[in-house]
Fold:
Amino acid sequence: MFEKTRWFSHRLNTESTLARWGTMGQPVLVFPTAGGDAEEIERFLMIRVLEPLLSAGRIKVYSCDSIGGRAWFDKETSPEHRMWMQHQYHQYIKHEVVPAIRRDCKSEDIGIWSAGASIGAFHAAAMVCRFPDMFHKALAMSGTFNIMKWMDRPDPTQYFYVSSPLHFVPKLAGKHLEVLKTRHVQIASGEGKWEDIGESWRLAKTLGEKSIPNFVDSWGPDWHHDWVTWRAMMPKYLDEWTR
Structure:
């Protein structure tokens, strides 16, 4: 049921890991939180709560290292390098992770769902927005989408501009936008400790202004920015989506 593979990514200039749980079903790529790795979701018991869906063959869960997320907090490098790394991480997903998932699923064009919490939510939403031909749904939980607030410069480089939905989605047009209008971004957030649902509403407004299907689901003040919340959210939505 569990497998993992490692390879050296020249796009990231480091070793990378892709983990998989399950043997059949809809592929779901789960992005870790900021400093997480491919097996974070197992250590934090997410796989345990997804077990009924995995055992029923309704989903196959994949996860990769959060190399893009880690870059944001590497203060030994320049803001420009961190923005470049963000773009490289998304290219690594497109050119390395997606083909690996499709080979494992024995399908050259199967649509993948993305999911993640906190910084992982940023990546999950960005995948559908950047690559709607590959990613068909996103589950963005307790997301942080305005990542520029962590940069030591006022404006994004071009590398980050094309990586951030808040920046590039308003300028989308043509075939890319038309395909994206057939996808869906589910944005879920608590309103308890360390949560900022305003981030979710900002992403929703950006998507809605381009008629991209999305929905903000507030779980209220009793749900906080932690794994207890995300372990409740992810099985709920994936169960609904695979019925």
Observations:
- The chain is about 40% helix and 20% strand.
- The chain has one domain: 2-241.
- The domain at 2-241 is CATH 3.40.50.1820 (Rossmann fold).
- The two ends are 22 Å apart (CA to CA).
